[in-house]
Design brief:
Blueprint (H helix, E strand, L loop, with lengths): L8 H10 L3 E4 L2 E7 L3 H18 L4 E5 L2 E6 L10 H14 L2
Antiparallel strand pairs: 1-2, 2-4, 3-4
Length: about 100
């Protein structure tokens, strides 16, 4: 089985500059979202679930009332950031209008 490669640092830096809603820390990219209420946050999570299933790639999801934090890494790459993470983050951001 071939191992998925982590993203090169210069590509990640450029990507983060173009996607300011996302940040990099502890080997992962993450973004925080705030909504009007829990129902709106949960509706967003339903969309994230659909996008994740379509990509066959799933985020770590933290939800507290109207706040959602998404964290992405690729397990097959040793829990490092790969193109799969960046692609899913872009799809989520595009849907959210970021």
């Amino acid at each position: 089985m071939s191992r998925i490669k982590s993203i090169e640092n210069n590509i990640l830096v450029d990507w983060l500059a173009k996607n300011p809603a996302w940040s990099y820390a502890d080997g992962a990219i993450s973004a925080n979202f705030t909504f009007v209420d829990f129902t709106e946050a949960f509706s967003f999570l339903a969309v994230v679930a659909r996008l994740s299933d379509e990509a066959d790639h799933h985020a770590k999801i933290e939800n507290l009332y109207n706040r959602v934090r998404l964290t992405l890494t690729t397990h097959e790459a040793g829990n490092q950031v790969t193109q799969r993470d960046l692609s899913l983050a872009e799809k989520i951001s595009e849907w959210k209008g970021l």
